[in-house]
Amino acid sequence: MTVSLVAGAVCAVEPIARAELEAETLEACRAGDPKALRRFVVRYQPVVFAYFSRTLGPGPHVEDLAQEVFLKAFRALGRFSPEGPARASTWLLTIATRVAIDARKRRRVPLDPFPDDGGPIDPQTPETERRRLEIRHRLGRALAELAPELRDAYVLAEFHGMTMLEMSEVLGIGLNAAKARLWRARERLRALLVPWWEAGC
Amino acid sequence: MLKPSHALCPVQQASADFADRVVEAALRDLEITRRWSKVMHRVSVGIAAVWFSALIGVGRDMRALAQESESREQDAMNLLEQRRTSGRALLAQVEETRQRVEAVLERLRDEDGSRRGARSSRMPSH
Question: Is A70 on the interface with B (CB under 8 A)?
Answer without folding.
Answer: yes
